[in-house]
Amino acid sequence: MATPIVPINLNSTDTLTPDNAVYAGFFGVMGTTSAMVLTGLGAAYGTAKSGSGIAGMAVSKPELIMKSIIPIVMAGIIAIYGLVVAVIISQSVTSHFTPQIEVTKLSASGGYTNTFGFCHLGAGLSVGFCGLAAGYAIGVAGESGVRGTAMQPRLFVGMILVLIFAEVLGLYGLIIALILDTNVK
Amino acid sequence: MASAGNAICYVLLLWTGITVVLGVYYVLSGQGTRIDFGWLIENVDPSMYASLGIASAIALSVVGAAWGILTTGCSILGAGVKAPRIQTKNLISIIFCEAVAIYGIIIAILINARLKKNLDLDDLSPQYRRGTQFAGFACFGAGLTSGFCNLFCGMAVGIVGSGAALADAQNAALFVKILVVEIFASAIGLFGVIVSILQVGVIAQVQIVVAQSISAPK
Asked: DSSP secondary structure string, B31-78?
């Protein structure tokens, strides 16, 4: 453990130690960003792919369009997972960004430590990549599902089952992100 | 274009090889601590981070909007050959893509206002540095979030709008139903804007905390 750097402003209670570095905030912010951006990509892919499937089957079976909106809604839910995690990480960064309180001890106490930053980055990446994969799966399966349902109406239930399993993948990422966020105290 | 793909692979391999060789040389000659990403993140000027955030917010949003407009416009004009009635109604899809670019402008101006207000570098003591550097990080993150989300949203709205135009050309009653899918797609850009505004708003609260720590007696 290195010695703390003495601050220039002697009235301050903040110090910089290697465990409490300035770059920890960068990783917290990148956690928020990656949560929203990667789930947004998954949701956009799912919406676009299923949407073009709907446009294809709409010409022959217009009465089935409203039932076929389900893959679109599930892709939108993936984006909501990312939004929820981004908001949680953002609030967590704010509430833990207190300057270090103890100046005399060599061990860091208080402040936004490196651990907090890395935990936030991990939370964002976990929901991000899980949401990306889930959105991709919803898109491809949804497109085949809506086109197949137009030709064979009994396939509708099967499509819903496949989409639910794909959606749950994003949920796993959300769970792990929330667990990682509880590491930050 | 196999030769172009091969050329790109060779260039990537060359650059990776040079980087690995340099890294191994540094480590073996005892200068391994010079490879310091933390130093790089800490010492890039916060104005640079904020400016890159502003640039990526507007640039990526406009690329997304442009991609959407080109995809949708192509389909409208192609299908309009046999069904010219679809032109005016399908301008709605193009307006959805344009809204994505407007989101980008709004976020860029917001981050710019934050850059002017919170990123002064008069005092370079460690406490101010932590708060100011964090403000730079947050501007960068906000710009990337809204930029990339608007990029993906624009591409998705373009693809769905193209499908809507082609379906509309065959049966005029289908356009409104496929418009519902476009609304879901444009919600993604809106989520990105919400998160960006949240990230920019975090800066004010953090700087209040930093200022309180400086004025608090030991």
From this structure: -GGG--HHHHHHHS-HHHHHHHHHHHHHHHHHHHHHHHHHHHHHHHHH
Cα distance between residue B161 and residue B108, in whole Å: 26
Closest alpha carbon within chain B to A7: B126
A26/B48 Cα distance (integer angstroms): 14
Q: Do A33 and B141 count as a contact with CB atoms less than 8 A apart?
A: yes
pLDDT one-digit tens code per residue, B1-38: 678 889 999 999 999 999 999 999 999 998 888 888 88
> Can you give chain A as a three-state secondary structure string?
CCCCCCCCCCCCCCCCCHHHCCCHHHHHHHHHHHHHHHHHHHHHHHHHHHHHHHHHHHCCCHHHCCHHHHHHHHHHHHHHHHHHHHHHHHHHHHHHCCCCCCCCCCCCCCCCCHHHHHHHHHHHHHHHHHHHHHHHHHHHHHHHHHHHHHHCHHHHHHHHHHHHHHHHHHHHHHHHHHHHHHCCC
Under 8 Å CB pairs connecting chains A and B tally to: 198
Interchain CB distance below 8 Å, A13 and B41: no
pLDDT digits over B79-90, tens only? 999 999 999 999
Domain A22-97+108-184 bears CATH identifier 1.10.760.10: no
Query: Taking CB atoms and an 8 Å limit, are A37 and B155 in contact across chains?
Result: no
What pLDDT, on a 0 to 100 scale, did the predictor assign at position A107? 41
Facing residue for B145 by CB, picked from A8, A28, A37: A37
* Nearest CB neighbour to B125, from listed A7, A55, A94: A7
- Whose tokens are 């990339």? That residue is B148
Structure token pair of residue B188: 């993604």
- Going by C-alpha positions, the residue among A139, A5, A8, A29 that lies closest to residue B53 is A29
**Could A69 and B180 be called an inter-chain contact, meaning their C-beta atoms sit closer than 8 Å?**
yes
Interface ipTM = 0.88
Q: Parse chain A into domains and list their residue ranges.
A: 22-97+108-184
